[in-house]
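Help wanted!
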Amino acid sequence: MARVYVSSVINAPAARVWARVRDFNGLPNWHPAIAESRIENGEPADKVGCIRAFSLRNGDRLREQLLGLSDYDMFCTYSILDSPMPLTNYVATLRLTPVTDQDRTFIEWSADFDCQPDREAELVSGIGGNVFQGGFDALKRAFGG
Amino acid sequence: MPKVVRSTIIDVPVDRLWAVVRDFNAHDQYHPVVATSLIERGHPVDRVGCVRRFTLRDGSELREQLLALSDLEMSYSYCLLDTPIPLFNYVAHIRLLPVTDGNRSFWHWESRFTTPPGREAELARMVGDEVYVAGMEAVRQLPQLMREGH
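Answered by r_m:
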């Protein structure tokens, strides 16, 4: 089992950051690697169990399923159903926690998955760097730091 | 039942911050309101169930018991046993998490307790600001936690 963990600090109140990231169909609105997204079967994007089908700017297509969503604890958990990446059993969580000092946001994005041992380092650095930290960098720019 | 939460970012790698924060008997070395502290019965400071007895600068004496400690989660929980301050059923939790972006630390400190009627806001502010924020700010200034070159 491989694990990726990336965390950062966004200079905005957690409620504002959450309003931006809680939309399971909203990746194209804030993540620079995502080109377009839709929810299958016309379901609401906050219906637990819904599936998002989206494409990256490089053309890759993925399907992911919403496993858990909490407006109270501000986290979202999802799994990958289909992707071009050589991995299985991928489950990820995006979580926000208020930083009371200066009313900022502590943001964590983690994933667990299985893969061939010789692919693990490449997958961990690609997911942690391009996907997770890439998303954080975009949020930091959007919220001014 | 009041819930108090204070959290901050400390600009030091989390393993170095944890080495300071996990010591249940070190608050008299940095916290501005704590004068002296000892672990009762000579127990190890990281023995779950140990009791720290400490005095504040105003002379009042308190006893707190370590309820849980995890080096894996970088967290611990403790409760108040005896205090002249009217805080009842007081249980607090401290947790550190790494901020990988910048190799810093997130520090979360929270508690729940009951108070005499009408004193909830006053005591919640006292616990949050004079205990938690003051403790975090004192740790932030510790020389051994300063970054190289700062």
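OP: Thanks! One thing I noticed: The interface with chain A takes residues 5-9, 97-102, 104, 106, 108, 133, 136 of chain B (CB under 8 Å).
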